[in-house]
Amino acid sequence: xKNTIERPLDxxxxxxxxxxxxxxxxxxxxxxxxxxxxxxxxxxxxxxxxILGDEKKNLGLIFLKGxxxxxxxxxxxxx
Length: 79
Hints:
By secondary structure, the protein is mainly beta. It has a single domain, classed as SH3 type barrels (Roll), CATH 2.30.30. It has one helix and five strands; from the N terminus they run αβββββ. Strand 1 (19-24) and strand 2 form a beta hairpin.
């Protein structure tokens, strides 16, 4: 099996269309389907939900500026 990860952005490219967890600088967390991103890590997420403790607030389609992102986890880590 060939590893398709050669550059850091390959990780995000492989996560397109899949659920991701995004940690923001303001201690907010978002989860949703990664639609698109650019080299500045500006990202578009569909079916987005903000995680508020044990609750999730539905936000729908959102755009996050890359300078507010701490990390993106390309995995189904949140139910």
